[in-house]
Amino acid sequence: MTEDAVSQQAAKRASKYAMSVDVEDYFQVWAFSDVVSRDSWDGFRPRFGDATRQCLDLFDRRSVKATFFCLGWIAERDPDLIRDIVARGHELASHGYDHTKATEQDRGVFFEDVFRTKKILEDIAGVSVNGYRAAGFSITGETPWAHEALAEAGYAYSSSSHPISHDHYGDAAAPQTPHCPVAGSALLEAPVATTSLMGRRISCAGGGWFRAMPLSVSKRLIASASASLDGPVIFYFHPWEIDPDQPRIRTASYKSKFRHYLNLRSMAGKLDKLLAWRPWGRIDQALGVGGSS
Hints:
Blueprint: H1 3-14, E1 17-23, H2 48-62, E2 67-70, H3 72-77, H4 79-87, E3 91-94, H5 107-125, E4 131-132, H6 146-153, E5 157-158, E6 188-189, E7 194-197, E8 200-203, H7 207-212, H8 215-228, E9 233-237, H9 254-261, H10 264-277, H11 283-287
Parallel strand pairs: 1-2, 1-9, 2-3, 4-5, 5-6
Antiparallel strand pairs: 7-8
Helix pairs in contact: 5-6
């Protein structure tokens, strides 16, 4: 087998597993939004820069390229971080400006948000931004206009669907594989990974689910998703999940605190083992959309 053939086979295998990072700080998560207002964000000492650079270093050690969905708010405050993400070979994508859910916006406000954030990121990094992920996976049946707005704003894909039943997000009736949600548009919606267990859809996409489960269980579920899904297995996590020493939000509800702080101290080591287990790559390359920046 020629070297080119080997490289092509490796690229094909890598395209089955896509790694992504939602770049937001510990005080910006939706679960704390009822006790931490956006007006107060600048009063917190930011930790996203160090935590995201730890993610970059971890990916470098494992030779992994990933997709980073970044808030415009963060990009404005640390443009060097945005440029570093691109310089290390990762995909730069949009997470909206300030982590407002699509379900809390109308079409006009949503369009302005996604268009503005795309421009902020592109102006800082000098690359095209093709991907978008809504805060809280909030593109659902409640936002029938969202994909049209994303296509109009110039995005090539969205990874904003978590097709499960959950109290904070999700749509258990949504497709589990990449699809074109807008007639006449090439825009793709690429859901994060799910699989079936005892006839019920469950998540194997990362985040709190990954922190809560034993690594062996996560691997089995991801392998199941890989075998059953017609498209890439998309995994995600946040930089704050590998920052166990982050300040605690004492006023949050017990349920929110339990979910947010669960197993933070073991997350980096667990993630490192997952990265070594399969050949993870960028979402844009896994979907074959846009150009490689």
